[in-house]
Design goal:
By secondary structure, the chain is α+β, with helices and mostly antiparallel strands. The protein is built from 6 helices and 14 strands. The strands form 4 sheets. The chain has a 6-stranded mixed sheet, covered by helices on one side. It has a 4-stranded antiparallel sheet with strand order 11-10-13-14, with no helix packed on it. It has a two-stranded parallel ribbon with strand order 3-8. A hairpin with a 5-residue loop joins strand 13 and strand 14. The relative contact order is 0.22. The structure holds zinc ion.
């Protein structure tokens, strides 16, 4: 838990982990009632893992920013384009990302992630934000050759181990005034590559949750990454892909920051 001064506090005497069962509105209110200043500080240098344990579905939306659809030379979707990322791609926000030997086209994608708090099935758009526990920063790391040149589906290029850094925090919904006003930026080796805001999304968070809930039941702890803005390596002329030793630095304003080394 992050206290008022931004210091990390150890919750382990109170809960073993932040599991789906703790993400409902009542349970989050219970956590909120804890006086964080009374908890022990977490030592500097301790690895930060996933902000939520026991994630059961890891879903992604593609081409949700107009300029990114243009740079990818793909049509702007009339409905949200949805694919899955393997659960085994999930990683901590600052973990090294292993470069698979099978790809020559590893790319970056800074994104807003939604964490579901309550079971959601066939919600209206007006009900959708009520099912959201909070938000995280995410990197939807992608192998473009496997995403696009291996006869479908996108899941292939999005699921390698380490391709789903998430965190550092779950920022609960009550701390996010407007999920459509979150800055997102990404640097590679210090060079600014992506710099946008969730205000540019084609389909907002409420529509994404409502839409996906029409054809599947969303469960507490499920994570939905919501698409990346323009500035990915594939869109550069000529394209630039990640190499071993590259460093990705992501910033999501109040969502915090990530840093990954490609190994
Ligand atoms: Zn993406």
């Amino acid at each position: 838990m992050i206290d008022r001064n931004g210091a990390r506090r150890d919750l382990s005497a109170i809960v073993a982990d932040i599991t789906p069962e703790l993400l409902g509105p009542k349970q989050l209110d219970g956590l909120k009632a804890i006086d964080a200043e009374q908890l022990p500080l977490v030592a500097d240098g301790v690895r930060i893992g996933l902000p939520v344990a026991g994630i059961r579905q890891f879903i992604a939306v593609g081409l949700n920013y107009r300029k990114h659809a243009e740079e990818a030379q793909m049509p702007i979707p009339a409905e949200p384009l949805v694919f899955n990322k393997a659960l085994t791609s999930l990683a901590g926000p600052n973990d090294d990302v292993p470069m698979p030997t099978l790809t020559q086209q590893m790319d970056w994608e800074v994104e807003l992630a939604i964490v579901i708090g309550s079971q959601a099935h066939q919600l209206q758009q007006s009900q959708a934000l009520g099912a959201v526990a909070g938000y995280c920063l995410a990197n939807d790391v992608s192998a473009r050759d496997w995403q696009l040149d291996h006869n479908g589906q996108w899941t292939k290029g999005k699921s390698f181990p380490g391709f789903g850094p998430l965190g550092p925090y779950l920022v609960t919904s009550d701390e996010v005034d407007d999920p459509q006003n979150i800055p997102l930026s990404l640097r590679v080796n210090g060079h600014l590559r992506q710099n946008s805001n969730t205000s540019d999304m084609i389909f907002p968070v409420s529509e994404i949750v409502s839409y996906i809930s029409q054809f599947m039941i969303l469960l507490p702890g499920d994570v939905i990454v919501t698409g990346t803005p323009e500035g990915v390596g594939m869109g550069m002329k000529p394209p630039v892909y990640l190499a071993k030793g590259d460093v990705m630095e992501l910033d999501g304003g109040a969502l915090g920051a990530q840093r990954q080394l490609v190994v």
